[in-house]
Structures are given as structure tokens and as C-alpha cells.
């Protein structure tokens, strides 16, 4: 089983060109699945695994208060893994074909109001020195470009084109896209790069620590959580909230949805359309507040 997992992870890295984070998550999901089987069924082999084992695993996850989204993500890992085993002629049947995940309740993306975002750059006091310049830049890049956490972590200095005001991003499925940015972000980038150079931090990654190492995922999340915590009471204060905010603010201010799709790096328009619901909710609020016959 260990060999099968190693082969699958190698396949993800070399042929599917999955990100290191994706490969790590897939491996973790498979280890968890096989650990569950070992504890519940003691002895088993790959050909003996059926859809009932997968359903038992899903029930176990939900009994342990895992969200439907998490359960579906782990099920997706299992489906990909067993599909790989069939293609590799290790198995003849994919036992996951009959398995369906729990339904996920649709929720509108959480975003930050424009006024709250403005207050970050006008009122929030960042730590003096290099780390303050860096933390401010993290917030500014995430809000002005809509990058995913993994994407901002992988940025190199050479990906930033200050002259043309654009950033080159390598997104999911190794799909490259170019994102323009405004004068404010350009100034913050220039200020940060100057301080980085003064500190003799020569790491090619754009965002680094004072030890000249790239920022970790945990550090990026911590920076965002602390800054957003000062301007909003939202329970969610992750880097992805700034991605939601980027998309919502663009659409609220009249951006073409196809352009937003390209900026976000979405594979299909349906993934972008969820942000239009926030725009509709804003219109409803304005209508209810202003129309004399709205009933409010």
C-alpha cells in the first residue's frame, strides 16, 4: 500500500504537476484513510477495498464533526487515487465510483467592506521596520490581485514587473496568468524591495523572513488574521477572504465577470458567478433602503 501511495504522489508531481501543498494534502488524506481501515478492519489488501469501506470512512469523519466540504475533499482524493490504480493496472475496478459525498450547503463568500479595507491602509499601524513593510505588502497584494495563499508564497522577485505594473502568477494546474496592479501597490512594492535590499535579504522569493527564508503558509495566514482582526468582526479572516473581497469589489464596481474570471484564474465561469450573489445582495439592500414601496 505504501508503494501504491508513493507511486500516486509521484504521478501527481511529475505528470499532473500538482503543487507541493496539493500533493501533501493528498498523501495526508490517504494515510488517514488507510489508518482508519487498519483500526477498523485490521487486515485488508487493495483489491479487497470496496465502496462500503469508503462510506464507513466518511461516516467516521462526519461523526468527528468534519465539515461536508472536508469530507468531499478527502473523497475526491480517494477517487483520484483509485482511478490512478485502475489506469496503472493495479486494480481492475474503481470501488469509489459508487460513492457520493454529502451535500454542501451553499454559502455566499465572506468579504470585507470597502471602507474596512480602506481603513487598513489609512489607520492600521504596521510594525516598524522590514516586517511592517512586508506585512503591509502581503495584505496589499492579496487584495489588489486576488491571489491564492499558495500563489503569493511562490512569487519570485522576477515575477514582479514594476515598469508595466503587472505580476506573473503560476496558478493551479501550472496555468500562468498576468495580473495588473495599480500605483498604490507599485509604491508598496518599491518600498518593500528597498528595505529588503538594505537588510541584505537576497532570497529570490519575494516575501521572506528576517532569516532570509520564504514565508510559510502559517505565517501568511497569521499576518492576514491579525490585520483583518483589527478592522472586522467576521469570524473568517483568512487569505482567501481577501481573494473573495477582491472579486466582490471588482464586480460591485462594474467589472466584467469574464475579466474577473481570468484574473482569479478560474477554469470555468461558474466558479466566478458565486461572487455575483454578493453584488445582488448589495442591490437588494439598496433597493429596500431607498424604494418607497419596498415594505421596509
Give an overview of the whole structure.
The protein contains 13 helices and three strands. It has two domains: 2-87, DNA polymerase, domain 1 (Orthogonal Bundle); 114-288, Orthogonal Bundle (hpI Integrase, Chain A). It is mainly alpha-helical and 296 residues long. Strand 2 and strand 3 (176-180) form a beta hairpin. A three-stranded antiparallel beta sheet has the order 1-2-3, with no helix packed on it. The model has no long low-confidence stretch (mean pLDDT 90).
Write the layout of secondary structure elements.
Elements: H1 2-14, H2 20-41, H3 51-63, H4 68-87, H5 114-122, H6 130-145, H7 149-153, E1 160-161, E2 166-170, E3 176-180, H8 183-198, H9 217-229, H10 239-252, H11 257-264, H12 269-273, H13 276-290
Antiparallel strand pairs: 1-2, 2-3
Helix pairs in contact: 1-2, 2-4, 3-4, 6-8, 6-10
Amino acid at each position: 500500500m505504501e508503494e501504491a501511495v508513493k507511486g500516486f504522489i509521484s504521478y501527481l508531481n511529475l505528470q499532473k504537476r500538482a503543487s507541493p501543498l496539493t500533493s501533501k494534502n493528498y498523501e495526508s488524506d490517504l494515510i488517514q484513510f488507510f489508518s482508519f481501515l487498519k483500526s477498523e478492519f485490521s487486515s485488508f489488501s487493495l483489491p479487497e477495498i470496496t465502496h462500503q469501506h469508503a462510506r464507513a470512512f466518511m461516516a467516521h469523519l462526519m461523526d468527528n464533526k468534519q465539515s461536508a466540504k472536508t469530507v468531499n475533499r478527502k473523497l475526491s482524493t480517494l477517487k483520484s487515487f483509485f482511478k490512478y490504480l485502475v489506469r496503472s493496472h493495479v486494480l481492475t475496478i474503481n470501488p469509489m465510483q459508487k460513492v457520493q459525498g454529502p451535500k454542501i450547503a451553499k454559502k455566499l463568500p465572506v468579504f470585507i467592506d470597502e471602507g474596512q479595507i480602506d481603513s487598513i491602509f489609512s489607520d492600521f499601524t504596521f510594525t516598524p521596520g522590514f516586517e511592517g513593510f512586508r506585512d503591509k505588502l502581503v495584505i496589499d497584494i492579496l487584495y489588489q490581485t486576488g491571489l491564492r495563499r499558495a500563489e503569493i508564497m511562490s512569487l519570485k522577485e522576477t515575477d514582479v514587473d514594476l515598469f508595466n505594473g503587472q505580476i506573473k502568477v503560476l496558478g493551479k494546474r501550472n496555468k500562468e496568468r498576468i495580473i495588473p496592479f495599480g500605483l498604490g501597490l507599485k509604491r508598496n512594492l518599491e518600498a518593500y524591495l528597498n528595505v529588503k535590499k538594505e537588510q541584505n535579504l537576497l532570497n529570490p522569493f519575494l516575501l521572506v523572513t528576517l532569516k532570509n527564508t520564504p514565508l510559510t503558509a502559517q505565517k501568511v495566514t497569521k499576518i492576514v488574521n491579525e490585520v483583518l482582526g483589527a478592522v472586522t468582526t467576521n469570524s473568517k479572516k483568512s487569505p482567501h477572504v481577501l481573494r473573495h473581497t477582491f472579486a466582490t469589489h471588482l464586480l460591485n464596481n462594474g467589472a466584467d465577470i469574464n475579466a474577473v474570471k481570468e484574473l482569479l484564474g478560474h477554469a470555468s465561469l461558474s466558479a466566478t458567478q458565486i461572487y455575483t450573489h454578493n453584488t445582488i445582495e448589495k442591490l437588494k439592500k439598496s433597493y429596500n433602503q431607498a424604494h418607497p414601496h419596498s415594505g421596509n
